[in-house]
Amino acid sequence: MQSVQLNPNAAAIAESELVLNPDGSVYHIKLQPEHIANDIIVVGDQGRVQRISSHFDHIECKIANREFVTHTGTYKGKRVTALSTGIGTDNIDIVINELDALVNIDLATRRHKTEHQSLNIVRLGTSGSLQEDIPVDSFVVSEYGLGFDGLLHFYDGTFDADEEALQKAFIDQLEWGNVLNTPYFVRSSNALMEKIGEGMMKGITATANGFYGPQGRVLRLPVKYQSLNEKLRDFSYNGHRITNFEMETSGLYGLGSMLGHNTCTVCAIIANRYKREYSKDYHVAVDELIDLVLDRLTS
Burial of 134 by CB count in 10 Å (0-12 exposed, 13-18 middle, 19+ buried)? Predict the structure, then answer.
């Protein structure tokens, strides 16, 4: 997607639109500009923040509000932030907009800054594989996010040609109707993806707006699109295939691209939906992925 430009001449942003706490921190994540590093690892699980920061040489600050837990410190001498987003693209909408506000809006004057600052934001998550050849406890890096959530349709963004081509191919191949949200594709930041995901399996990550029905799981409620996972598994366009399912990447990639930040998702595969297998202890794989991401992000 194409990024929007800062407009220092724009009117000051109203208090109702950019909400600040009494201490001057942004409303939900409760952070001030000095609390974040340029390199940020976002995770869904609050407990995973502690697992990441336990590797830090030094922790500068620990701040928590609701599901948003932030630890900033240094790893091998380089400043890093670990931040939990909670589950879903609705929370990603909050986190990415507020992180951007911390670096690209003057919170005192409520105006856009004159110079843009680009953050490196890596999502370190867990995910379910849709393909037989992607085993449990392996790692996948997301070349594209496929959004079923509808979040980006609320923003006036412009998709790139490759993203539009993937969308058209997907709608045609799956005979996607009007009952569900219009899907969209967003590409990762290539340089960051190559740096973080070197040697990992690469593919399209489908972002669902729920864990059960939207990912084809049936407990007591029947699903409307009963063959969804099979059709996702069979999708192919110009060598691209859909590798895994999770709940945040499309929002991260879309908002990150529009706001001019570098974004990448890497996931530990904890379930194989094709084989109906689940990891015996996915924490081992997650800890290995934490080590890998910290080393690569700070190198």
Answer: buried
